[in-house]
Amino acid sequence: MNSTDFGDPLTHLVILSVLVVVIIIVSLLSNVLVLICFLYNPEIRKQVPGLFNLNLTFCNLLLTVSNMPLTLVGLVSKAQPGGDGFCQIVGFLETFLSTNSMLSMAALSIDRWIAVVFPLRYHSKMRHKDAAFVLGYTWAHSMSFSTVATCLSWVGYHRLYASCTLSNPRASSRTQFVIFTVFFHSFTFLLSFIVLCVTYLKVLKVARFHCKRIDVITMQTLVLLVDIHPSVRQRCLEEQKRRRQRATRKISTFIGTFMLCFAPYVITRIVELFPAVPINPHWGIVSKCLAYSKAACDPFVYSLLRHQYKKTCTDIINRLLKRSSLNTSGRGHENQGNSIPTVE
Fold it and tell me: Are 156 and 91 in contact (CB under 8 A)?
C-alpha cells in the first residue's frame, strides 16, 4: 500500500488532526460571538432562555480551551498529555462540561415547551429564579457524576479517544465501573434525549395545529377574494408550505444534531464495556470528534441563526464600521489641516 493511500496511518492522523483543529477554531469563534451578543444586547440578557444559552456557551468555551487542545496533543504525540494528576483534572472537567451541556439543551427544550404550550402562563412558570433553580440542578447533577468518577480514580488517559476522560485500568473494579458507566450515560445522554423528544414533539404538535388554523383562514380569504391575481394566490400557498416545513426543520435540527454528535460516542463507550468486541482506534477518535463538534454546532443551532442574534451581530458590525469610518475621516481632516500653508 502506498504512503499516499487513504488507508495509511499517517493520512488518518493528519485528517483527524485537521478535523480537531477546525472544530476548535469554529467552536471558539462561534461561542465567543454568542457571548459578545449576550453582553451587548440587554434584551437577550433579560430573556430567560438567555441564561440557558449562557450556561451552554460557558461549557462549550471551557471544553474548547481545556479539553480539545489536549486531545490534539494526545492524538499527535500518541501519549498522555501531562502527568496523572493533571489528566485527572482535565478528565473531571470533560465529564462535568459534557454532562452540563447536555442538560442545558434539555433545559432549553423545556423552556420552549412551556413557551409554546402555555404561552399565557410562561412568564409565571419560567422566571429568572426558576431558570436559576434549573441551572443549579444541572450543575449539581454534573458535579456529582464527575466527583464520583474522580474520587474512585475512574478518570484518566484513554488511548482509544486520545483524551483524558472516563477510564478504568484496574481489573479489580471493572464491574463497578461498568455499572457506573451505564448509569452515567443513562442519566445524562439518554435522559436529555428523552426530554428533547418529548418536549419538542409537543412543540411540533402545537405548531402544526396553529399552522392548520392559519391555513384554513388563508384558504377562506382566498376563496372570498375572487379577483385576486393568480401570482398572489400562489405566493400565499407557497408561504403555507414553508410555514409547515419551518417548524419540522427546526425540531429536526435540535434533535438530529444532538443524536448525530453524541450518540456515536456514547454507543462506543457502551460497546467498549464488552472486551470481546473490538473497536477500531480511528473510530474512537472520530466518535470523540463528533462529540466535540456539538460545541461548534450549538451556537448556530440555538443562537446565531435566530433573528435577534443576527440583528445584534449586524448592529455590532455597523457600529465597528461606523467608528472605523469616523476615525478615518478624522485622520483625513487632520492631515488636510496640517497641509494648509501658513502665511508669513
Answer: yes
pLDDT values of the chain reduced to their tens digit, one per residue, 344 residues: 344 444 577 888 899 999 999 999 999 999 999 999 999 999 999 999 999 999 999 999 999 999 999 999 999 998 999 889 999 999 999 999 999 999 999 999 999 999 988 888 888 888 889 999 999 999 999 999 999 999 999 999 999 999 999 998 787 788 999 999 999 999 999 999 999 999 999 988 887 766 665 555 555 555 555 555 566 556 666 666 666 677 788 899 999 999 999 999 999 999 999 988 889 989 999 999 999 999 999 999 999 999 899 999 999 989 888 876 666 665 655 555 555 444 44
Q: Is residue 317 domain-resident? A: no
Q: What's the predicted TM-score (pTM) here? A: 0.84
> Domain with 117 in it: what CATH number?
1.20.1070.10
Count the domains in the chain. Answer: 1
Is residue 319 domain-resident? no
